[in-house]
Write a structure and sequence with these properties.
Layout (H helix, E strand, L loop, with lengths): L8 H6 L2 H9 L14 H10 L10 H12 L3 H4 L6 H18 L3 H8 L3 H15 L1
Helix pairs in contact: 4-6, 6-8, 7-8
Length: 132
């Protein structure tokens, strides 16, 4: 499951965050841009007419797989409460990328990792300073 970040045109167009979540779960999440109230092809057309490329949200599972490949840390360890330094670094990278590229909410990441949303925010900020 992946949550689309709060606000934004896609969430509003789909009828709220819960409908957006359902579509993401089914793999139906399309192009989104918080400046455009609309879905999929309409957003593509509006952005193309403005000379911009659409942004596509990545699935959190794909982001996790990428972090596993880059760090060599098992995905289960990243989603666990393991406090080994290398696991925490991989988890921070995952939280940052999931929020930035996947639009995943801190609340969702907290449920997946069994950490607090505050801990997730701290991890995402920490990795954001290091790689972004």
């Amino acid at each position: 499951m992946c949550l689309i970040s709060t606000g934004g045109g896609l969430v509003k167009s789909l009828g709220g965050i819960f409908e957006a979540e359902r579509q993401v779960k089914r793999g139906e999440a399309g192009t989104s841009d918080e400046r455009v109230l609309g879905v999929g092809g309409f957003v593509d057309e509006v952005l193309a007419s403005a000379g911009e490329k659409p942004s596509r949200m990545e699935r959190w599972q794909d982001i996790l797989a990428e972090v596993v490949r880059k760090t060599g840390i098992d995905g289960k360890a990243i989603l666990s409460r393991d406090q080994k330094r290398e696991v925490v670094r991989a988890r921070a990278m995952f939280c940052y990328l999931a929020k930035e590229r996947g639009g995943v909410s801190g609340e969702f990441l907290a449920k997946q990792t069994r950490l607090t949303s505050g801990a997730i925010s701290m991890l995402a900020r920490q990795k954001g300073r290091c790689i972004g």
